[in-house]
Amino acid sequence: MDQAQRLREYMQRYQVQETRKQSSRLITITSGKGGVGKSNFTINFALALKAAGKKVVVLDLDLSTANIDILMGASSKYSLADVLHQRKYLLDCIEKGAGGIDYIAGGLDINDLLRLDNRALAFFMDQIQELQSYADFILLDTGAGISKELVDFILASDETILVTTPEPTSVADSYAVMKTVHQFTAKSPPFRLVVNRAQSYREAAETSRTLKNACNVFLKMKLTSLGFLMEDAHVQKAVRAQSPFYLSYPNCEASKNINQILYTFLPDMEEAVPSSNGIRGFFEKIMTLRKS
Of the ranges 128-142, 153-167, 198-212, 217-231, which one carries the lowest mean pLDDT score? Predict the structure, then answer.
């Protein structure tokens, strides 16, 4: 191998490393129906990532029933809507939640992006770019159910975590999410499954296997398992107290399950190169999808 070839290979490795270092991972977290614990999972998963030394921002993109701050017993002064309408800079909108979690309230109508003039759009995009060097992971907590907005979020993200419960209706609605995404793209975006509120590990495994097989056989889409959370009375106690169970009950079964999910999640993420071109690329892609 000549010196020029070695130099080219070195530069390619360097560019990949720089991409990994500079680009936040954008993870959409969603569910086929409400009431499965999606937002609760998002908060506690964010806390686990933070405990592992990762910088995390939770972005509440539930356009109908945003409740991230309620689950943490916090209140939001500002939201992404304030950035959109040039009332605030983005970094002013980052709130501190339970355990020091950074989060930004939504309050954003995605269609408003399409109505911005060039100057307002440039301001919004420049502000959004601030998150790129601020966080390792940006968790996008979306609304439950199937919508065009949800499909756009999924297609613009690096990965989607789909949260379900073993209930047949929840499994059916989760499959419907996958089927809807399949109708919009021939290439399956990365999906991983979390089974929440399982009564046993056997039930969790059977639920996961059923949904994965259905997606593989009928949609030719790959759905991999990220892990399970067992039914745990501590979870509801924490919800009522508006405090994440990962903080209130660090040794409970659900907290141990979150750590197991984290151990599965992080090694894969360390090796993967982000495909979304960061948070600015995410919103640019959203706008392209909305216009198409």
Answer: 128-142
Q: How confident is the model at residue 105 (pLDDT cuts 50, 70, 90)?
A: confident
**Which residue shows structure tokens 């090694």?**
267
Ranking 35-49, 57-71, 152-166 by mean pLDDT, the lowest is 57-71
Residue 237 structure tokens: 């106690």
